[in-house]
Amino acid sequence: MQYEIAGNPEYGQLSVQLGPGETFVGEGGSMSWMSEGMEMNSRLLGGFFKAVIRRLVAGESLFVGEYSHPHGGSVTFSPSQPGTIVQRTLKGDSFILTKGSFLGCSPGVELKTRFHGIKAIFSGEGAFFIECSGEGDVFFNSFGAIVEKEVRGSLIVDTSHVVAWEPTLTYALKGMGSIKSTLFSGEGLVLHFTGTGRIYLQTRTMTSLAGWLTSFVT
């Protein structure tokens, strides 16, 4: 399998070139165009109950498309939101994604949900993350550009700006100081990351955009 990412950082799109017998798993509804003769089978990734949980709590589709071509061909995917696409290779390790950021993966990658506390339900960003593990390539996307930061110690991040991170980092969901600051600062809950590892942050958020647009229609 070969791939090409074009359009970064504003409007990233992913094109995958498959050889005979190779397959690729894409997020449901993200296919833009493909070669004639490309075969696509819809399936529940990880089984019915895992897929339902991903849809309800992690913002991902119930179904994914498994693409293949008997003689080799290409298929292109575009995320639902404008921004950057990033590739990550897994070699028996794991990687954490926030809701709505999964775009596609090779068939050796397993997706499962991770719960991060009752408090997270009130964060506005969902109570579950997606853990990618196994062998193969993972592709994920952001809203806006992606900033990669190497954490050595600690880092505090607004929940809506986190896209992905390495599991060598541990995290805690906390308020912005006092109860008054948490409720009225406009920041709400934040993630305190500690340890050593890489984190991917997005420069824009859908919630901020929605709030800005609302001011013009109310």
Describe the structure.
The strands form two sheets. Strands 3, 5, 6, 8, 9, 10, 11, 12, 13, 14 and 15 form an eleven-stranded antiparallel β-sheet that branches. Strands 1-2-7-4 form a four-stranded antiparallel β-sheet, with no helix packed on it. It has helices spanning 48-58, 179-184, 206-217; strands at residues 2-6, 13-18, 23-27, 31-34, 39-44, 63-68, 73-77, 85-97, 102-105, 109-115, 128-141, 146-158, 162-165, 169-175, 189-202. The chain is globular and about 55 Å long. With 218 residues, it is mostly beta strands. It has a single domain, classed as 4-Layer Sandwich (Double-stranded beta-helix). A hairpin with a 6-residue loop joins β1 (2-6) and β2 (13-18). It contains three helices and 15 strands.
Summary?
The protein is mainly beta and 218 residues long. Helices cover 13% and strands 52% of the residues.
Question: Mind sketching the topology for me?
Answer:
Layout: E1 2-6, E2 13-18, E3 23-27, E4 31-34, E5 39-44, H1 48-58, E6 63-68, E7 73-77, E8 85-97, E9 102-105, E10 109-115, E11 128-141, E12 146-158, E13 162-165, E14 169-175, H2 179-184, E15 189-202, H3 206-217
Antiparallel strand pairs: 1-2, 2-7, 3-6, 3-9, 4-7, 5-6, 8-11, 8-13, 9-11, 10-11, 12-15, 13-15, 14-15
